């Protein structure tokens, strides 16, 4: 399985450092993620603990899919669902605790790639909790079995776990079949299509457990709020909307704690994040930008080193109560630069302006002060210093935007209060 060695061009890195980056940067980061995942799949296959014939069959299917339809196969193999599985099974192999079901999931990956590429195939996939999961497609309940035969024929997927073949395309609304549902919004050139993944068995790893299958009514609430959120982004920050649409692939709904909305991005996964349903469309819009900022920077850090990993010092970050390493501070600064920019733009949105004014004042002050900490550090690499310089230029533009005196004073008081509480908790 041939892969490409990636370097991030200086102009794209510069654009990303200026907080956004655009569609070209999102596509470049997705290409790099695909290359990374192909390398990890190849490593997994080299270390395959099962029969060689089993491994060779999977290799042949993956190569056939990539030859027949490179873009379609890449869409599957570079997906966050496949990335999450690779991370989990690779760690399990390193620790000597890989289960056959996790290893055998590569058969489901191969079936999904062949289906996307229009290649006929036959392979084995695991049955977990009575169901077969096909990444990017859905989950089929098949009953008690350890594995199932998955056939791809003329574009159709057929699953047989020993109880007779089940043609997925003929199931319709059969309750055994849980397809991966899509959130859709926008029209014209700024459309968004995101999977709302409540079926994949490897969708965990966030600070909250993934939600079980959403009811039709729950899914509709997500769709309605997403439609409103996307309209806000498309109308008020179209450049950010375009890069989100180009790079974000899926959302994982998380179980709420009953107190506050939450969201998180997993460092090694690009194009997906987990969240509880935000309270408002504006919050949803900002969360899309916030978490995609994290995803972009994590993908950049796969390609370039921005800080010294040996630096063990800890720093104040106004969005966290715990001391943060420099790399964590950089993640926060970068994410909140996007947050500040989005709230800045949403000051022009009906019904949002007053809240957006204060959120903008708060976020830009957090970025300014935390970026100053980064700039004064001696633990940034030369590339990291260049990155910080471009981010400072962007931040200075945010600081030049006028805000009301009342909002500025509240932002300063809020920042000072957080800092004092942090000092009390983290200094002897």
Q: Would you kindly provide a brief summary of this structure?
A:
The chain is an alpha+beta fold and 428 residues long. The protein contains 13 helices and 12 strands.
> What does the radius of gyration come to?
23 Å
Mean pLDDT across every amino acid position = 94
- Give the class from helix and strand content and strand pairing: alpha+beta
Q: Can you give the helix content as a percent range?
A: 40-55%
Beta-strand share of residues? 5-15%
Q: Largest sheet, described in full?
A: 5 strands, mixed
Count of individual helical segments: 13
The total beta strand count reads: 12
Shape: globular
Termini gap:
54 Å
Please write the string of helix (H) and strand (E) elements.
Answer: HHHHHHEEEEEEEEEHHEEEHHHHH
Record the strand order, biggest sheet.
Answer: 8-9-10-12-11
Task: Give the count of structural domains.
Answer: 2
Low-confidence stretches: none
Write a structural description:
This is HEXXH motif domain-containing protein. InterPro entries: AKG_HExxH. The chain is of the alpha+beta class and 428 residues long. The protein folds into 2 domains: 47-178, no CATH class; 181-426, no CATH class. The chain contains 13 helices and 12 strands. The chain has helices at 10-17, 22-46, 52-68, 70-77, 80-94, 100-117, 216-236, 238-247, 281-301, 326-346, 353-376, 382-399, 405-426, and strands spanning 121-126, 131-134, 138-141, 147-153, 156-160, 166-167, 177-179, 181-185, 192-196, 250-253, 263-264, 272-275. Strand 5 (156-160) and strand 6 form a beta hairpin.
